[in-house]
Prior knowledge:
By secondary structure, the protein is α/β, with parallel strands linked by helices. It has helices spanning 12-22, 25-32, 39-49, 87-90, 94-104, 119-125, 140-153, 171-175, 178-181, 186-189, 194-197, 200-208, 231-236, 244-252, 264-272, 294-305, 320-328, 338-370, and strands at residues 51-53, 68-70, 73-75, 79-81, 109-111, 130-134, 157-161, 214-220, 224-227, 256-261, 277-280, 310-314, 334-336, 383-385. It is 43% helix and 14% strand. The strands form four sheets. It has an eight-stranded parallel beta sheet. The protein has a two-stranded antiparallel ribbon with strand order 1-14. The N and C termini lie far apart (69 Å). The model has no long low-confidence stretch (mean pLDDT 96). The structure holds flavin mononucleotide. Flavin mononucleotide is lined by residues 30-31, 44, 82-85, 112, 114, 133, 161, 259, 281, 283-284, 286, 314-317, 335-339, 341.
Amino acid sequence: MSRVAAPRVVNIADLRTLAKRRLPRGVFDYIDGGADGEATLRENSRAFEQVTFRPRSAVATTSCDLGVRVLGLPLQLPFLLAPVGSSRLFYPRGEEVAARAAGDAGTAYALSTLSGCLMEDVRAATSRPVFYQLYLLGGRDVALAAIARARATGFNALVVTIDTPVAGLRERDVRNGIRELLSFDPLAMAPFLPQLLRRPRWLAGFLRDGGLMKFPNVVLPDIGPMPYTDVGAALEQSMVSWPDLRWIREAWQGPIVVKGVHTSDDARRAVDAGAQAIVVSNHGGRQLDGVPATLRMLPEVLDAVDGRVEVLLDGGIRRGGDVVKALCLGARAVLVGRAYVYGLAAAGGAGVTRAIEILRSDIVRTLKLLGCSSVAALDRSYVNVEFAPTREPVPPPT
Ligand SMILES: Cc1cc2nc3c(=O)[nH]c(=O)nc-3n(C[C@H](O)[C@H](O)[C@H](O)COP(=O)(O)O)c2cc1C
């Protein structure tokens, strides 16, 4: 029996437990943690509990259609895999493994700039859509080279993440000595090494996979693939601002998704900057702590864009019912981050496949219990919203 089959793994929380057992504490906490007091991290999930269903009982729904189109691309599931940096630290060839599992399930995979696998290998791993998530690490010329490479490789869309002018303060990372472990100074590293030695199975896989990954899609002049580094500092020197969208759009010449939109204002800016889709996202509570749950922000953003672009959402999705709630509130599709990463860290491709299967079967069951035969038919009438959605501030009278 597979390590991730029932009864051992029944839900995403079970995959999280297995991930925690397999990974060193610092690696697990890097995935699991959020910024500062982790209020936004908690709120993202809590908001889903504050939306309740209004089922239509005694409606026969023998089959359910889960298909959606994102940027015109058909997906067999209403969720796709979010860009997650450093996945190769979680499991050997992590990005490639996750992309393959997504493709086999009929959905898309978004590859982070901060990945350890070549974009060409990720593209080859799946016949379904792949998106390239862009950070401007290394500056404009390095980004232009990556954009050209993503185009030539056949990536379907560019995801420009705008909520990372600096990495959030992930307090767990500080306590676990992540900076010291990356310093390669034996004296600084020493107190934090036992956590790695306590996970020999992970360590053996990590070493077999080549040890600490580089970023092979960030090719620096004279240096080559960017060495693994304290990403916070690198991001600070390379933030994206709205004027950058223009040259990015010209270089890419394909669909652009702006990820990290929190407010109606930024949603309109993204539309003006030529985005075809936006992701209402607070980076899974890893950046600015104290912003509201994404689900609460969704109505404000939908109002602002008024159908001009596709609106996606991520943050806090741990069950298929959460996906259904986001779609009822108007998201075209959602991205899942930790939900699949726990599976990857627990058991590689089998774990990602299990995570996807858990969410898929949750969605089918929820649709049947709601008396609704397709995700396309979901709307506000299937839910009660028991929180106050965010509202655009009214400007003071002049
Ligand atoms: C470990 C980890 C690394 C991440 N790395 C990136 C990244 O490199 N680029 C990016 O745009 N978002 C990144 N994200 C954010 C995700 O794309 C997504 O917005 C978030 O995980 C959604 O919240 P959820 O984990 O609750 O589903 C990362 C998230 C996690 C958990």
